[in-house]
Records
---
Amino acid sequence: MNLICENGIYLNENLKTKDEALKKLSEIAVKEGIAQDAKILYDAFIKREKTSSTGMMDGFSIPHAKSDTINEAQILVIRNNNGLSDWETLDDSEVKLVIAILVPNENVNETHLKVLSNVSRKLMSDENVKLLKNTDSKEDIIRILS
């Protein structure tokens, strides 16, 4: 199963807030047939954010949603031109790269933690982080996050 595809990667976005980013992810998911209902998916992102922020370090965030509205496990990527200062991160950096993990409730236990662990591990490499922040190649992003 391929968890990431070119249609789910949006580079050079001009979002202003975390809320806008989560809404955009929800809309992309519905547009690409990954989810059925953008509002339900957005609510799942918000519910997770209320538990604790998904902002990481170095301008990354890994929001994740588990919901019955999600048809298939998928990773979506948004790279924003400006930092999102309202997204709380571990190092107080502004979020510029959002890597979202969407998982249907039916296989949440087997898929969610595996995908989250894999993405987090990839972000431990300085080379991967630099490439994700700077490349305009969707193929490179797919290669790194697959």
Note: The helical segments are 18-31, 38-51, 108-122, 126-134, 138-145.
---
Amino acid sequence: MADTITMTEEIKAETKVEEEIPDRIALTFKDQNILITGGTGFLGKVITEKFLRCLTNTKQIYMLVRPKKGKDPKHRLEEIFNSSLFEQVKQQRGLSELQKAVTVVNGDVSLPGLGISSEDRKMLCEKINIVYHAAATVRFDELLKRAVLLNTRGTKQMLELAKEMKNLKLFAHISTAYCHLEEKILGEKPYPPPADPHKIIKCVEWMDDDVVEAMTDKILGDIPNTYAFTKALSEGLVEESMPHIPSIILRPSIVIPIWKEPIPGWTDNINGPTGLLIGAGKGVIRTMHCNENGYADYVPVDIAVNAILACTWNFVYLKDYEKRVYNLTSSNEFKVSWAEIIARGRKITEKVPLNGVVWYPGGSMKKSRFIHNICVLFFHMIPAYFIDGLIFLAGYKPMI
């Protein structure tokens, strides 16, 4: 009996201590006005949801949103709130309260002046305390001109706006761990950009699209794609700003679907390994030229968002102004090989088959490019032409 009483008292004491410990992350954002660019993207949606669900003491969230496919920014925000991602927070707070907590600012990061009105610019300069610049094109095959205008010039213009903000506490630039591919070990420090970002911006601004395209390979040099190139240029611009504004660089690796909260497995795209698993699960991908023992670096999007908030706390609340670059990565502790990813995916698709399967899930990775090319011919090209032929004969448009 005495032991039971003692245990009960210990539990009560622990609960009391937990109640007395303040939520330091929440205190960091108390009464703060937040500006998010790229809020309609995968990472941006999860950041916004996290603020609305867990950081309710934030004063106001502002989202820079552009019109798209005939839909105005407010309509696009309504579509975001209709997503299953926001079901839990809508039940907690109600849709009307969420709509009041988020203010849409009409703008486009790829346009001169960010495409925002003078009134909105003045309002943002007066109110904003923390900026999360996540707007970017993440396509590896994006045209160089568009990638520069959105990723690099957009960052430059956001930094110029931030310099005008009277109460700015932090400008957080969401970069990528894969923008300095020449580095075998990525340190938490700035690296020299592959070219002068200001000159590259001026170059693509006055050149025609076809001229820029013709020069792309020469401009990129050893960098394999426009995404890595323009993100490295953007980091150079943020580094330039560090003596003038409280800015930091955040480098998440490959961001994958939600791990835990609010919906395990949620995603709104098929980028990265997700697309690979879907392709293999549907039987479309039968061979891959890859070292099966190699691995990439993955971070679940909810963990990436938690890390972003923790970095904000470290800079704003702890006032650690010396640390300006953060690598949000996992492979130092967790290494998942390509072979393991495929094996895990195969087990899942065997239990829960995907819709529209064209072939039993299988295939394998080949270290030899020659063997891989032979498999592409027999397992990708010939079956694709055969299926398209049947579709055409049936009177439909070929699709594979």
Note: The radius of gyration is 24 Å.
---
Amino acid sequence: MAPTVESFLRSFNSKLEEPVRQHLKNVYACLTMSTISAGVGAYIHIYTELLSAGLLTVIGSMGLLIALMATPDNGKNRKLRLGYLLGFAFFTGMGMGPLLDTVIQIDPSIIVTALVGTAVIFVSFSLSAMLAERGRWLYLGGTLMTLLSALLLLSLANLLFGSYLIFQAYLYLGLLLMCGFVLYDTQLIIEKRRNGDKDFVAHSVDLFIDFIGIFRRLVIILTQKEQQKRNRRD
């Protein structure tokens, strides 16, 4: 086990320069705080009557994201921008409250399973991007944008037709897309840092959106499977 870890660390250090490694530490620290903030938002919706998901939470989430992107990093306003990030994550997590309410009624353990599954998928694809050849996954950008357009078309088609098959295609294609974005965004962040971009707060936003996208889809997939099991028993 020890030689394997040592070999991994040696490979990791040889692939990434010290400034890039430090930048990634900051990015993932922001991602961790964002995830915790989202969890707090979801908890408040589910277990308290202080706030609940609705139009105002959507407006709040989008407003804080716009504020973050509209406030350039000057090295002195990082606490303010981090506040915008955590607020965006908080309202994003709260927005997932209605979905999690439904899941809890079916089987609360689905949330834990989906969270663990999301973490495993996210870490695996992130490490693959870090240890891959430089720029190997950046070519995915065009393909991912094409798939994203197809996903939006599927979403609109499902609004019109209400098809179960279209929804399933939307669900699984979306999961595949989010995994691809983890590869792409991770390598893009590395290249941005190499080109002098030190804005780790903004860089963490992309990974947070990827993480939430994977989690949301895994929750729905696992919930569907649990419902199918119960239907077969009945």
Note: The mean pLDDT is 89.
